[in-house]
Design goal:
heterodimer; A: 117 residues; mainly beta; seven-stranded mixed sheet; B: 109 residues; five-stranded mixed sheet; four-stranded antiparallel sheet; 0% helix
Chain lengths: 117, 109
């Protein structure tokens, strides 16, 4: 298995531009998570999906951020318009079905490093 | 969310055992104790998890106190590749993983 695949690995853009980050979860996993990591705030959960449905988006910073999961093998995180404070590493993670005996281990991608100038 | 407390940083010598502590005095009966680690420039990766009994796998051992208010991740022989940030997380079924600042482990050659 190729693991969780994220693209792009690096993105440099100017303030005001639209940014789209992409994620392909591990096949068969039914939960998908978007995290953001900065030096100041550490690793923060932005949103998570279960069976392609957004379950908890309380971590999404503001309306400039949106996430979609049109099917089980693809998700996007979009920032429009981008601002310098959005500069961070964005991680996507997927998890297999969680039952009471399964703690739902997270499998992370390598991240997308975003720099907004 | 359940809270954990870890030292900010620790140092170890290569090929020596490392004991990484985690305090979780408010743990509930349904909270599993998870450990993840994040190597430089990579996403976090799973290390080990347990509920009440001590656990061993190929990466590490997890020792859980009898009252479950603390736990220790044990790396039996640290290598340079084990230098990472180690996160101790409590999670019950249906909850999200909440990552704290973790412990930054340095391994000295």
């Amino acid at each position: 298995d190729a693991g969780v695949i994220q693209s792009p690995r690096h993105e440099v853009t100017e303030m005001g531009q639209e940014v789209t980050l992409r994620c392909k979860p591990i096949s068969g996993h039914n939960s998908l998570f978007w995290y953001r990591q900065t030096m100041m705030r550490g690793l923060e959960l932005l949103i998570y999906f279960n069976n392609n449905v957004p379950i908890d988006d309380s971590g999404m910073p503001e309306d400039r951020f949106s996430a979609k999961m049109p099917n089980a093998s693809f998700s996007t995180l979009k920032i429009q318009p981008s601002e310098p404070r959005d500069s961070a590493v964005y991680f996507c993670a997927s998890s297999p079905a969680t039952g009471r005996q399964n703690t739902g281990e997270l499998f992370f991608g390598e991240g997308s490093r975003l720099t907004v100038l | 969310d359940a809270k954990t407390t870890q030292p900010n940083s620790m140092e170890s010598n290569e090929e020596e055992p490392v004991h990484l502590p985690c305090n979780h005095s408010t743990i509930s009966g349904t909270d599993y104790i998870h450990w993840y680690r994040q190597l430089p420039s990579q996403g976090p990766e799973y290390v080990i998890h347990g509920l009440t009994s001590n656990v061993n796998n190929r990466m590490a051992s997890l020792a859980i106190a009898e009252d479950r208010k603390s736990s220790t991740l044990i790396l039996h022989r640290a290598t340079l590749r084990d230098a990472a940030v180690y996160y101790c997380i409590l999670r019950s079924y249906g909850q999200n993983f909440v990552f704290g600042p973790g412990t930054r482990l340095s391994v000295l050659p």
